[in-house]
């Protein structure tokens, strides 16, 4: 038995015990009614028994026929089921959910404060974070990828075409001065060349090409003599190692920041880049090339890789603690603070919510009544009776107890009057 059912059962048992107590007391007192004190108690037991039986009959008659006897004006709720349901619906539609009562109640309420308080409590719930994160990721994944890639490709092509070559040259020169891009590019090329030379396959290929080139120099007497001399001293494999060593030494020298050759190349690049920004002929050629050749480039693969990588990074960020603690939560909290502290927006939003609530009830209170009627009609009579007894049965049983006790007390008073008068 559940904790809710226990009090109801106990109350029903108490009511039954009180009725049995009155009946037993009345029966036991019958043989001794000549005694004044017993007669006085018998009057109390008799009245208590009558009161208990009368209240039991009245309460039982509400829900069913007492003892199964079809006595008139019993089984009231089942007989008047439709009237009870319609009364409940009418009360909801005309008394509880009418415009006047709702407006009167809303006048003493500040809906904006309550909504803000509810929203603040929702923000700290783990379920809110999980739901919002899942919603954002779901929206991101449903973005029209093909349309976005097509739009980005078109816009990138148009931007490259429309971007003035002079401004591009000036910007390239500024970026190079700020970030030393020419030095970075040279280091990248030197590193790439070093990795190629350190590859045994590439090294042997270079030696083979040099050896073959020397053999082919038959027309040039000097080169032919030199080539034959080298061939006598070096084999193809040894020649590959020599050339590799020479080229790697050159690369290592070029990696030195202050090496003359490195500085000379960098100076040449910078002077040409500076000259480009004022060279009208070359700028015109670049513009013409962009206008005719950019359309041939397919930027979609590059854009798609960037799109996929950006989407993945965005999903990781949205699910991270950093996003919620540093971005989302402060932003949402500030929004609620601004709403709460705004001099006019809070009042106007409160009034708007009240108007919408009143309008909603006005438009739907009949639907609400119909919904209540529909839900009540879904239950059979026995279920409805059980639901009512479950909610108010305890109080009804106390009526029986009070009836027996009041009857007993009144019986004692009447018995005393009889003894006094007699």
Describe this structure in words.
Residues 1-7 have low confidence and may be disordered. The chain has 19 helices and no strands. Helices cover 84% and strands 0% of the residues.
The biggest sheet, with number of strands, parallel, antiparallel or mixed sense and barrel status, is: none
Shape designation: elongated
SSE order: HHHHHHHHHHHHHHHHHHH
The total count of helices amounts to 19
Q: Residue share in helices?
A: over 70%
Radius of gyration: 50 Å
Structural class comes to: mainly alpha
Q: In total, how many beta strands?
A: 0
**What low-confidence regions span 5 or more consecutive residues with pLDDT below 50?**
1-7
Let me know the average pLDDT.
80
How far apart are the termini?
53 Å
Strand content: under 5%
Short description:
The chain is mainly alpha-helical and 422 residues long. It has 19 helices and no strands.
What key attributes describe this structure?
422 residues, mainly alpha, 19 helices, disordered N terminus
Write the layout of secondary structure elements.
Elements lengths: L4 H25 L6 H28 L12 H4 L1 H16 L2 H8 L4 H13 L2 H16 L3 H18 L2 H15 L1 H17 L2 H16 L5 H13 L2 H20 L4 H17 L3 H14 L6 H19 L2 H21 L3 H34 L2 H41 L1
């Amino acid at each position: 038995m559940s904790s809710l059912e226990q009090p109801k059962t106990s109350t029903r048992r108490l009511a039954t015990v009180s009725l049995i107590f009155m009946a037993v007391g009345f029966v036991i007192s019958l043989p001794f009614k000549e005694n004044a004190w017993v007669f006085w108690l018998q009057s109390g037991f008799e009245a208590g028994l009558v009161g208990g039986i009368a209240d039991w009959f009245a309460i039982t008659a509400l829900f069913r026929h007492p003892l199964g006897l079809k006595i008139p004006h019993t089984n009231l709720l089942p007989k008047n089921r439709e009237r009870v349901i319609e009364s409940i619906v009418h009360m909801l539609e005309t008394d509880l959910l009418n415009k006047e009562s709702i407006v009167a109640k809303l006048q003493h309420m500040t809906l904006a404060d309550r909504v803000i308080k509810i929203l603040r409590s929702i923000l700290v719930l783990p379920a809110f974070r999980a739901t919002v994160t899942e919603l954002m990721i779901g929206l991101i994944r449903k973005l029209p990828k093909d349309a976005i890639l097509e739009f980005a490709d078109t816009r990138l092509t148009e931007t490259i075409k429309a971007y003035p070559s002079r401004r591009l040259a000036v910007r390239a020169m500024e970026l190079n001065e700020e970030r030393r891009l020419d030095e970075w590019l040279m280091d990248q090329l030197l590193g790439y060349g070093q990795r190629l030379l350190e590859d045994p396959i590439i090294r042997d290929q270079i030696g083979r090409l040099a050896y073959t080139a020397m053999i082919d120099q038959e027309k040039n007497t000097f080169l032919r003599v030199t080539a034959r001399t080298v061939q006598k001293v070096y084999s193809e494999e040894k020649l590959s190692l020599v050339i590799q060593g020479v080229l790697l030494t050159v690369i290592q020298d070029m990696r030195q920041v202050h090496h003359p050759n490195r500085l000379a190349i960098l100076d040449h690049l910078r002077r040409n880049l500076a000259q480009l920004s004022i060279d009208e002929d070359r700028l015109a050629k670049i513009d013409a090339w962009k206008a005719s050749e950019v359309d041939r480039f397919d930027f979609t693969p590059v854009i798609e890789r960037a799109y996929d990588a950006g989407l993945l990074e965005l999903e990781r960020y949205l699910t991270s603690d950093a996003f919620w603690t540093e971005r989302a939560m402060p932003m949402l909290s500030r929004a609620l603070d601004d709403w709460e502290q705004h001099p006019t927006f809070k009042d106007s939003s409160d009034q708007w919510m009240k108007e919408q609530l009143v309008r909603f009830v006005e438009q739907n209170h009949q639907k609400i009544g119909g919904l209540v009627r529909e839900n009540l009609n879904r239950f059979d009579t026995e279920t409805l009776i059980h639901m009512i007894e479950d909610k108010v049965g305890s109080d009804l049983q106390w009526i029986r107890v009070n009836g027996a006790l009041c009857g007993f007390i009144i019986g004692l008073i009447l018995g005393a009057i009889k003894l006094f008068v007699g």
